[in-house]
């Protein structure tokens, strides 16, 4: 491809920025990144106080990519301020309340241990809850643990997600990437030319930006911008933040990352700068649909709304109670939703859009893409340039063959193993109730950035 062609990348999350940096360093001379807000985008999926960095995967391709990424997180000066090395613990319960327990947990643990062994990586078994508490004495609770199984990997950690995105953005700026953000960066539609190609993107301020090539890295918003034929669905996931005292931050600093595969619950060590302990659920989530397309609210906001469904709050508190029961009564200072763009298999989509030859789509993070920040730009750029090995091109293709399948069949619940590799747990996906939807939209609307009145 001619490196003087103009390339517009819509979306300044992990996928968009890492692609922009790789292409700029590869010599492409006209790259513009557009977004609704300057990155780190307040409600973008790549922005938060933390994301888990691990290469424990039940799939050898992501395990290998994850290990390459981990090596860079752990050793490159580019990530020294944002990466924190911490063991990652995986637990599951072989039997439990039928509606809450996913059968995927044991399966994930078995496959992952085998893959780690095959890669020559160390992992450590946890035979029972006592072994868990002996190795990690900061776990003050006693998980019920009937049928407990688990292991941990010391080669893992977490990244301050917003901070690492800031660093990536600044490297893009130094490499000559242009940014258009705010209302002139907020794309509302694609302008089609007579030959089926796209000539420009139209923006919410009435403007248009032309380019030779377009890359949509629009995360959970993608299906609201281009037809997707059931190949992706946006789901909202729950997150809670507990306010800690400075003494508690110190006392809990050696807390590992803990996943409970039976419920999807996971937790991080304290985040020193904010004094928050963050917990979340890697689950099947909620949809917010309009004309059968689920999408996060689209207007640019200053921060995420302080809202999750009440039943989700109870799940987060129950998970917290298993490991740090003394914090349950305090509850969450704030909660929020964070959006996954799911694919039926949990694989990314790095491919040309079937309808437009100069529109490439880089999405389908499916709740696990952040960790690949140091390496993913190369894979996306190679897919864009048609240089991926055939097996990866096949894995990350844009499927149109899901069109005739029901979304529920493709994505929902433990039985369908929706969105993934078996690392999910918790109740099946559902649409927000009318009441939840009203509350979310009302709170979100109050946070919309509006030009000041004169
Ligand atoms: C709660 C939660 C926990 C997670 N935990 C982990 C974890 O521990 N480890 C891990 O590896 N991954 C994790 N993930 C997944 C990871 O964060 C995502 O897979 C990844 O951030 C997706 O990146 P992205 O670039 O596709 O999306 P985003 O970061 O959302 O970027 C898309 C961007 O496109 C912009 N955009 C959308 N539409 C338009 C438009 N029309 N015009 C202009 N701009 C537009 C948006 O503003 C946004 O900034 C988690 C995700 C969530 C939600
Ligand atoms: C827990 O597992 C350890 C081995 O890791 C074993 O020595 C111990 O006896 C077990 N404890 C119980 C209560 O089963
Ligand atoms: C995981 O969740 C199950 C079901 O709620 C629970 O019984 C078990 O104790 C939990 N394990 C841990 C380590 O929190
Ligand atoms: C939404 O999907 C349902 C079930 O597949 C279908 O009956 C309905 O017509 C669709 N509605 C719209 C607006 O596309």
Automatic annotation (TrEMBL):
<dbReference type="InterPro" id="IPR036188">
    <property type="entry name" value="FAD/NAD-bd_sf"/>
</dbReference>
<keyword id="KW-0274">FAD</keyword>
<keyword id="KW-0812">Transmembrane</keyword>
<feature type="domain" description="FAD dependent oxidoreductase">
    <location>
        <begin position="7"/>
        <end position="382"/>
    </location>
</feature>
<keyword id="KW-0560">Oxidoreductase</keyword>
<dbReference type="GO" id="GO:0050660">
    <property type="term" value="F:flavin adenine dinucleotide binding"/>
</dbReference>
<dbReference type="Pfam" id="PF01266">
    <property type="entry name" value="DAO"/>
</dbReference>
<dbReference type="GO" id="GO:0008115">
    <property type="term" value="F:sarcosine oxidase activity"/>
</dbReference>
<dbReference type="InterPro" id="IPR006076">
    <property type="entry name" value="FAD-dep_OxRdtase"/>
</dbReference>
<protein>
    <submittedName>
        <fullName>Sarcosine oxidase</fullName>
    </submittedName>
</protein>
<dbReference type="GO" id="GO:0050031">
    <property type="term" value="F:L-pipecolate oxidase activity"/>
</dbReference>
<keyword id="KW-1133">Transmembrane helix</keyword>
<keyword id="KW-0472">Membrane</keyword>
<feature type="compositionally biased region" description="Gly residues">
    <location>
        <begin position="416"/>
        <end position="426"/>
    </location>
</feature>
<comment type="similarity">
    <text>Belongs to the MSOX/MTOX family.</text>
</comment>
<dbReference type="InterPro" id="IPR045170">
    <property type="entry name" value="MTOX"/>
</dbReference>
<keyword id="KW-0285">Flavoprotein</keyword>
<feature type="transmembrane region" description="Helical">
    <location>
        <begin position="7"/>
        <end position="24"/>
    </location>
</feature>
<feature type="region of interest" description="Disordered">
    <location>
        <begin position="411"/>
        <end position="435"/>
    </location>
</feature>
<dbReference type="GO" id="GO:0004657">
    <property type="term" value="F:proline dehydrogenase activity"/>
</dbReference>
């Amino acid at each position: 491809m001619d490196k003087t062609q103009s390339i517009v990348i819509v979306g300044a999350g992990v996928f968009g920025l890492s692609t922009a940096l790789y292409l700029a360093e590869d010599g492409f001379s006209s790259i513009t990144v557009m977004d609704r807000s300057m990155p780190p985008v307040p409600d973008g999926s790549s922005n938060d106080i933390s994301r888990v960095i691990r290469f424990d995967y039940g799939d050898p391709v992501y395990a290998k990519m994850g290990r390459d990424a981990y090596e860079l997180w752990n050793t490159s000066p580019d990530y020294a301020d944002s990466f924190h090395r911490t063991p990652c613990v995986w637990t599951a319960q072989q039997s439990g309340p039928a509606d809450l327990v996913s059968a995927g947990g044991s399966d994930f643990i078995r496959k992952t241990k085998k893959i780690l062994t095959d890669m020559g990586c160390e992992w450590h078994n946890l035979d029972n809850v006592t072994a868990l508490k002996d190795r990690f004495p900061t776990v003050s609770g006693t998980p019920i643990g009937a049928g407990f199984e688990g292991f941990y990997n010391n080669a893992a950690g977490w990244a301050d997600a917003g901070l690492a995105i800031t660093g990536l953005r600044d490297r893009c700026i130094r490499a000559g990437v242009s940014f258009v953000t705010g209302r002139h960066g907020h794309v509302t539609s694609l302008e089609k030319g007579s030959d089926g190609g796209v000539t420009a993107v139209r923006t919410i301020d009435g403007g248009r930006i032309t380019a030779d090539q377009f890359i949509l890295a629009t995360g959970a918003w993608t299906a609201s911008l281009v037809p997707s034929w059931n190949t992706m669905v946006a789901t909202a996931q729950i997150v809670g933040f507990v306010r800690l005292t400075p003494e508690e931050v110190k006392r809990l600093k050696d807390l590992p990352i803990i996943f409970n595969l039976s419920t999807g619950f996971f937790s991080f060590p304290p985040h020193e700068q904010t004094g928050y302990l963050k917990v979340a659920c890697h689950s099947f989530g909620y949809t917010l649909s309009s004309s059968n397309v689920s999408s996060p609210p689209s207007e640019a906001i200053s921060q995420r709304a302080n809202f999750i469904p009440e039943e989700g709050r109870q799940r987060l508190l129950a998970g917290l109670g298993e490991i740090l029961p003394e914090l349950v009564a305090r509850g969450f200072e704030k909660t929020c939703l964070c959006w996954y763009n799911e694919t039926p298999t949990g694989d990314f989509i790095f491919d040309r859009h079937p309808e437009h030859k100069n529109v490439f789509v880089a999405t389908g993070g499916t709740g696990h893409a952040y960790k690949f920040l140091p390496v993913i730009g190369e894979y996306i750029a190679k897919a864009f340039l048609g240089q991926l090995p055939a097996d990866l091109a096949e894995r990350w293709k844009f499927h149109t063959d899901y069109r005739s399948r029901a979304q529920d069949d493709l994505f929902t619940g433990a039985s369908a193993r929706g969105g993934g590799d078996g690392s999910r747990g918790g109740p099946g996906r559902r649409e927000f109730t009318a009441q939840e939807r009203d509350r979310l939209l009302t709170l979100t609307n109050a946070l919309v950035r509006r030009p000041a009145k004169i």
